Amino acid sequence: MPYRKVRDVDKLQRLLSGVLMIEADVELAALLTHLVEEACSLVGAQYGALGVLNESRTALAEFITYGLSQERELAIGARPTGRGVLGVVVADGETLRLDRIAEHPLSVGFPEGHPAMTSFLGVPVRTPSTVYGNLYLTNKLDAERFSDEDEALVEALAQAAAIAIENNRLRDRLRLLSVIEDRDRIARELHDRIIQRIFAIGLALQEASRYAISDPTRAAIARGVDQLDIVINELRATIHQLDADPLPGGLRRNATDLIDELAAILGPRPTLDFSGPIDTTVPPRVADHLLAVLREALTNVAKHARAEHCAVAFAVDDGTITLRVLDDGVGVDSARGGAGLGLANLAQRAAILGGDFSIEALDPHGTRLTWRVPLGAA
Ligand SMILES: Nc1ncnc2c1ncn2[C@@H]1O[C@H](COP(=O)(O)OP(=O)(O)OP(=O)(O)O)[C@@H](O)[C@H]1O
Ligand SMILES: [Mg+2]
């Protein structure tokens, strides 16, 4: 979006349209991306970024940038850790405007591959009670520094972002509650009604067998009773699964372990990123699929990509979980033959859960694999 001078009315309209998107059921990441773009284009900034803390406030759950090429982002690698000037905005919950970032006493410098940045405008993404993260712009395009007006505009957009994030977290919590209630209800229903009924049928059959007129009839009834026993045991096992956590350690632990396991064949260690309420919303059955998909994707990177970097990201947003595996290797050949089964399996796993799968070569090189399924599918 090229920078252009806009009239005040235009500005207000665009501000409003950004805010109104919160109500229109737009995916959170898409909405935040839009807000960062609008912020940069409205005030004329070369770069912009929006960071959202995870719920435990230990790392960034979302980090959306504007103005950086994908290549550059891969080269910079890790996201900002919240030290330095960015941390100040979140910690104080106050807007910060600087002519030169480097001159701030808490500036810690930039990582390798990071573009040069001078003027800075950072505003907290907050509601009155909670600081969710920050929105910051750098390198004002047509002036030495950001203005009071810029500050007011960006603060308004950051407020919109905060409301959208709050909305999203509330919705996730509600969804989780209903999943837990559903599981409990199904387990109770199975136990209290279904198992007891089958049990009663078994008793009735045993009773009937006393009056059976022939041995073959008695034997047939006995087999039926045995079958019912098996069904009851299967149901008990299912109830147990509903109650228990069949994936000890959860998705995070297992994904990290998997990367450790494959480290030897992968060369450079992939970065691993989680965003959204992963621990509370991903059912074990979906997590099992995700780990199988990750194993295949990383094995493919090791076997075929010849990559220098690889990035793995799990994101829960708007009732779906997305796994992305990005590498900067030779790129998947769109004309690839039917040699392997791996990718076909990934497509099939996504289809079983009502989701989708894609893999594409990136320009100028590299591959992006995206595997996404709805969380309600479990
Ligand atoms: N990250 C990647 N970079 C480059 N090429 C890739 C990548 N992933 C897959 N490919 C290409 O896609 C082809 C199909 O992948 P797929 O996983 O289906 O098969 P495979 O890995 O060759 O065999 P299998 O998975 O059955 O052991 C690969 O042979 C390879 O050419
Ligand atoms: Mg494969």
Compact overview of the structure:
The protein is an alpha+beta fold.
Describe the structure.
The protein has 378 residues and is an alpha+beta fold. The chain folds into 3 domains: 8-172, GAF domain (Beta-Lactamase, 2-Layer Sandwich), CATH 3.30.450; 177-243; 250-377, Histidine kinase-like ATPase, C-terminal domain (Heat Shock Protein 90, 2-Layer Sandwich). 51% of the residues lie in helices and 19% in strands. The protein is built from 10 helices and 10 strands. The chain has helices spanning 8-20, 28-43, 70-76, 84-92, 148-210, 215-243, 250-266, 278-281, 284-305, 342-352; strands at residues 45-53, 60-66, 96-98, 120-126, 131-140, 271-275, 310-317, 320-327, 356-361, 367-374. Helix 1 packs antiparallel against helix 2, helix 5 (148-210) packs antiparallel against helix 6 and helix 9 runs antiparallel to helix 10 (342-352). The chain is elongated. Bound molecules: adenosine-5'-triphosphate and magnesium ion (MG).
Entry keywords:
alpha+beta; single chain; 3 domains; 378 residues; 10 helices; binds magnesium ion; Heat Shock Protein 90; binds adenosine-5'-triphosphate; 19% strand; Beta-Lactamase
Distance between the termini: 40 Å
DSSP E strands, number = 10
The percentage of residues in β strands lies in 15-25%
Bound molecules: adenosine-5'-triphosphate, magnesium ion
Can you tell me the CATH superfamily of the largest domain? GAF domain
Counting helices, strands and paired strands, the structural category is alpha+beta
- Described by the principal axes of the CA atoms, the overall outline is elongated
The CATH topology assignment of the largest domain is: Beta-Lactamase
* Parts with pLDDT < 50 across at least 5 consecutive residues: 1-5
Q: H/E order of the elements? A: HHEEHHEEEHHHEHHEEHEE
Mean pLDDT figure: 84
Helix content: 40-55%
Radius of gyration: 27 Å
Q: Main beta sheet: strand number and arrangement?
A: 5 strands, antiparallel
Q: How many helices does DSSP assign?
A: 10
For this structure, what is the CATH class of the largest domain?
Alpha Beta
The domain count comes to 3
Strand order of the largest sheet: 2-1-5-4-3
CATH architecture of the largest domain: 2-Layer Sandwich
